[in-house]
Write a structure and sequence with these properties.
Serine Threonine Protein Phosphatase 5, Tetratricopeptide repeat; 3-stranded antiparallel beta sheet
């Protein structure tokens, strides 16, 4: 994304907005030794190089950026604007907060705002609480996403991990938001909290009105990690069976050895051993080999069902094994488990070859 074509377009827009902007020198500096840099390293380099080509006065440099960003395509590359604020705006708190609020609609300011939370949590979280009431869903989402205790690709917010109530006002304000974009963030925020403070998280959502569809959706997705672990209190919120009595039958995998890039198919039957209906959440767990030789489990959602007395259901699923940006595979012995309401009831091993 941060390539020569992008930088050529970026420099043209800055030249239009700022007559003193030297496109030729900017392009030379920004593309020099660009090859080895990762996505976010390129973004950070862009912020640093831009500072040399914009006015030293922070307010004036922001004014130029305000003119440029509406002319660019929306997306990840626009995160360089809030990144600039996160680097150089610490002595201009009010200006920076307004800039992050404005820029977030063109990409996201979720990473940059954490730089201010790290330096003055109380002051920044007060502003973000106000953002949770904003008419723009991008700004409302920023209030939740930027204050997540364990936001991916960012540092942990130890203040929220040690005191999860610090963001309660934000979550309470957004618990019935009309925008799915916002609700996903609230659910992810609560799911983060559940990893360190499960009892607190369940206490919060336990007081929410599940009869409201938007609120119910948030609670369900926020509880996903606890449900996968078989947390009894989280299961009870949704009336999942605590005392599971089922049997797994005819558990089969399509191969004992799978090549990277291939698909493993597995199937099994699940039958009731209870005289009453059971509400079940069925997952499967893949124990992936790590570079160290140890294995790491990853839980995948399969299905939910109401299993009637004496009822049996057959389930078939395929799992592809290929590298992603979020997961690199290593050869060796892997394990596949079938999990019902957080309890592992069957497993088989297979080998992954590269």
């Amino acid at each position: 994304m941060f390539n020569k074509k992008f930088y050529a377009g970026l420099s043209r827009e800055f030249e239009k907005a700022h007559a003193e902007f030297n496109s030729a020198v900017f392009l030379k500096e920004i593309t020099d030794n660009l090859g080895p840099l990762s996505l976010n390293e390129r973004m950070r380099k862009t912020s640093v190089v831009l500072r040399n080509h914009l006015p030293a006065d922070f307010k004036k440099s922001l004014g130029i950026m305000y003119k440029v960003i509406p002319n660019l395509n929306r997306g990840y590359t626009n995160l360089l604007f809030p990144d600039y604020v996160g680097l150089y705006g610490h002595n201009h708190f009010e200006l920076s907060m307004e800039a992050l609020k404005y820029f977030t609609g063109f990409g996201s300011s979720e990473f940059a705002v954490r730089e201010f939370l790290k330096r003055d949590f109380k002051k920044t979280i007060a502003v973000m609480t106000d953002w949770s009431k904003h008419k723009d869903p991008h700004v409302r989402r920023l209030s939740s996403e930027g204050s997540r205790p364990r936001l991916p690709w960012s540092f942990k917010l130890d203040q929220v991990i040690s005191d999860p109530a610090a963001t309660k006002k934000i979550l309470e304000q957004l618990k019935n938001d009309d925008e799915l974009y916002v609700r996903k963030s609230v659910a992810n925020h609560l799911n983060d909290i559940s990893k360190d403070n499960p009892a607190y998280m369940l206490q919060v959502v336990g007081k929410w009105d599940q009869s409201k569809p938007n609120t119910s959706w948030i609670i369900k997705h926020a509880s996903r990690s606890l449900i996968k672990k078989g947390n009894a209190d989280s299961l009870s919120i949704f009336n999942f069976e605590k005392d599971v009595k089922v049997k797994i039958t005819d558990f089969k995998i399509s191969a004992n050895k799978v090549q990277l890039g291939e698909t493993l198919q597995f199937s099994f039957g699940i039958g009731s051993l209870k005289t009453a209906p059971q509400k079940l959440v069925i997952d499967y767990v893949v124990h992936y080999q790590k570079k160290s030789g140890e294995t790491s489990p990853k839980v995948f959602k399969l299905t939910e069902l109401h299993l009637q007395p004496k009822q049996s259901v057959n389930i078939v699923k395929k799992q592809v094994f290929k590298d992603f940006t979020t997961r690199k595979h290593f050869k060796g012995q892997h394990k596949l488990e079938i999990q019902v309401n957080g309890k592992v009831l069957a497993n088989k091993e297979f080998e992954l070859a590269l």
